[in-house]
Amino acid sequence: MNKQTRRSFLRTSLLGGAGLIILPNIVTGCRTLGVSANRRIQVAQIGCGREGRVDMSGVLACPSARVVAVCDLDTKRVAAAKDVVVNFYKEKGESNVDVQTYHDFHEVLGRPDIDAVVVSTPDHWHALVAIHAALAGKHIYLQKPVTYAIAEAIALRHAVRAKKVILQAGSQQRSEHPFIAFRPASEAVRNGRIGRLATIKIGIGLDKPKGEAPAPMPVPANFDYERWLGPAPEQPYMEDRVHPQDSFNGRPGWITTEDFGLGMITNWGAHHIDIAQWAMGMELSGPTEIDAHANFMSGDVWTVHTNYHVKMRYANGVNVILDNNYENGLRFEGSEGWIFCSRGSVRVTSSDPNLAEPADLTKGPLRASDAKILSPLGTGAKRWPPSNNQYANWLDSIIARREPIAPIDQAARSLTACATAWIGMKLKRKLTWNPEKEMFVGDDEANAMRERHARAQEYDFREVMKKAGLSAA
Q: For residue 176, what pLDDT band results from cuts at 50, 70 and 90?
């Protein structure tokens, strides 16, 4: 297949029916290390919703991988995912394409021929699926935020290290494509191009109420809602709190329902905080002081925070400030200038919120107070490891048995910083955090919010770790 035909197919046949926008450089940017044609990495997709289809397309485009299984609790979605995979390989000239469908991810993990899994479930399921996958010896591509809660991130880190699997977080802003601004901006900051870093101002968008009251509904026959709830509190089914039944368009409601996702602070926050900590050399640490304020939706089917103002101070003296009035992106301010980086007009899905106002798009996704700040770095500068594409980097890392560009140790810290801010929002008071101990200082109430107790033992990540003979803490 020639390049243009392949690109057209991926944009129309593969994702067009889903209402998703996948830019060509996400797909064609996948260049992986050479592997034997008869021994590609066998991959299963777990979670086949809006973002799952994006992730699956990224893996399909990499020649070193073969998608052999798809898994979802919604039979409509798993069937649609199978069609995507089958059509992709048929377009490449294959006649008999074997793609197995699954309802239970445990059955996927039980297949010895599957080497790796892509986990694109809602946030409240990230930890359980990923921990089970690590314990089964499967390599993992995990959507951000890597877990729902702080204690889960710590446990997942232990499981990944114990089993020596390769976990890549879906923090695509660390790779060159499709977002061109984050690597050069963060490298410039890390190398002192703006002098002594003082403040990082971050905009992560704003969630707004649905404008409808909660209203229980019958559970669709094609959807295992009881299993989907997993560790979350028992509650009636509402389509607006789960995902649309008739399309892949729009953001699924679980993103804006606090029992399943914590809102923008961990949704887009996980992306931008990750870059902030990377740039200032705190990717294995976190804030020491948190002063977070937010309003939360009330009387609405959705429940996450709306407007917010968060100030976090790090041990290096840098203040990280998040505010819903800031342009989506990161502005690094130092003693000798500033750098701003964002996604600009690039979208991964058609419903990516608040990326940039029209007036901001003309300024470009990468800008600085002086053009010299963004000039090429010299010999001996601190440079990030090469990563052209997040999916290809993961697969290359599996083949080479090396750390990926967004490893679990750093991804867990990105989630932790965001989650400490959320806890501050809920408690409405200043908090002190110890990044080394990963505990709040002298605050039992805040420390209790580092995790959520599962509604049933089978969904308790601590029990899973215990049965495997591993510590969760």
A: very high
